[in-house]
Amino acid sequence: MLQQIDFSQRLIGVMGARGAGKTTLLLQYLKSVTREIKVLYVIADHPLVGQYGLFAIADEFQKIGGELLIIDEIHKCPHFERDLKLIFDSFFSLKVIFTGSSATAIDNAKADLSRRAMLYHLPVLSFREFLELETGASFEALPLATLLQEHVALAMEIVSCIKPLAYLPAYLEHGAYPFYREAGPTYLPRLLNASMQVIEMDIPALYPIDHDKVNALKKLMVMLCQSEPYDINISKLAGAVELNQKTLYKYLGLLQAAGLLRLLGAKSSGASIISKPEKLYLDNSNLFAIFCNQPKAGTVRETFFASMLSYQHSLNYPKSGDFLVDEQYVFEIGGKSKTKQQIKTETAAWVVADGLEIGVEEKIPLWLFGFVY
Q1: Do residues 266 and 277 lie in contact, with contact meaning Cβ atoms separated by under 8 Å?
Q2: Cα atoms in the 13 Å half-sphere on the side-chain side of 6
């Protein structure tokens, strides 16, 4: 993402779930510029930020020639939208970069900030990025259209360098968040702690949700973790967590904004769900290890595929198959023996097979979709 961000803009926001690497990205950028310009790095929940406010800090900083203000975890500041607009409109020589968890009011503030800020979303590590960290090798990201047309040759080229299937189980368990490298055996407890902070602190602090409903959010995560995506019955789910359906849709939207869930087949605006979701997934496969002990293999496969494709592509639930991507490509996900029987009437359709090293014709290995970003 360092190569993708246009750092010439005056107001830049980097969004992403807890643990995705937002702070590290900013520190990497700071390391490259601190000798050239005057920079102030602010942690948003520092007591002095609460005492003086972001606008006052920015004002004092620009008075002494400050050029770049970095605000980390801005969602922890009340009224941050107002302060950002005031800073942008008042101090033309001051550049501001801020980070925020996806579990914040930033989604709701986008309308106010969109005319001023360039917003970027930092996803979890792709399988490609994980392989680069693990092996030291370098791999190009594959555009989806190229992957579909040339998957056999592309897979053969990658397999000649490494054995992707040897690394895929590790990625599915602990490779989605970059802090896995420093965390070692404490990775899953740290991931659980980060997820609980989102549910117990971030969401209740920013949205009108009763604290006694926090347990309902936890129960939702566990139930969805244990279910097949197509087994979800909204009315039964609402009864099990003791919520009416309208409130359940709202909470599902909050969990999606938090980077914990992915809703398929639903049109959403901010945190409000307009229509009934057809399928519900955990955001990425690492979350299975903290919300349920033995996830179903098919659910993990589909979750991996959705996690890799949803960053740059739109996903919907088709009439036949598991995923409709960009409203033109249909995919059926399964094991090595999966056939096109369920999608035989579709024209642009592929089988995505787990456990397959190299594909053939319209059957593509699941791991290869981890290279799309």
Answers
A1: yes
A2: 7
Strands 363-365 and 349-353: parallel
Q: In this predicted model, what pLDDT tens digit does every residue of 326-366 receive, in sequence order?
A: 999 999 999 999 999 999 989 899 999 999 999 999 999 99
The two three-digit tokens of residue 22, written as one number: 């937002």
Q: How does DSSP assign 123-176, residue by residue?
A: -PPPHHHHHHHHH--------HHHHHHHHHHHHHHHHTT--HHHHHHHHHHH-S
Asked if residues 189 and 90 have their Cβ atoms less than 8 Å apart, the reply is: no
Q: For the whole model, what pTM was predicted?
A: 0.88
For residue 13, count other CB atoms closer than 10 A to its CB: 24
- Please name the helix (run of DSSP H) or strand (run of DSSP E) that holds residue 294, with its range, or none: none
Residue type for position 157: E
Other Cβ atoms closer than 10 A to 104: 23
Residue 316: phi, psi to the nearest 5?
Answer: -140, 170
Residue of 346, 319, 362, 360 whose CA lies nearest to 155: 360
Task: Count CA within 13 A, CB hemisphere, residue 275.
Answer: 7
Residues 136, 137, 138, 143, CA torsion sign: negative
* % of residues, the chain, pLDDT over 70: 93
The structure tokens 């056939």 sit at 339
Sheet of strand 68-72, all strands in order from the earlier edge strand to the far edge: 39-43, 68-72, 95-101, 11-16, 118-121
Give residue for tokens 């970095």.
70
Which residues are CB-neighbours of 286 under 8 A, at least 6 positions away?
Answer: 124, 172, 173, 174, 175, 176, 177, 191
Decide: helix, strand or coil at residue 284. Answer: coil
Three-state SS for 280?
A: strand
Tokens representing 259 are 């980077």
Question: Token pair 């999966």 is at which residue?
Answer: 338
The tens digit of pLDDT for each residue in 100-139 reads 886 555 655 655 676 788 989 999 999 999 999 999 999 9
Residues 300/230, Cβ–Cβ less than 8 Å = no
Closest C-alpha among 159, 261, 190, 177 to residue 220: 261
The tokens for 140 are 């190009």
In the chain, the amino acid numbered 223 is: M
| Phi-psi category of residue 136: left, alpha or beta, with phi > 0 → left and psi -120 to 50 → alpha | left
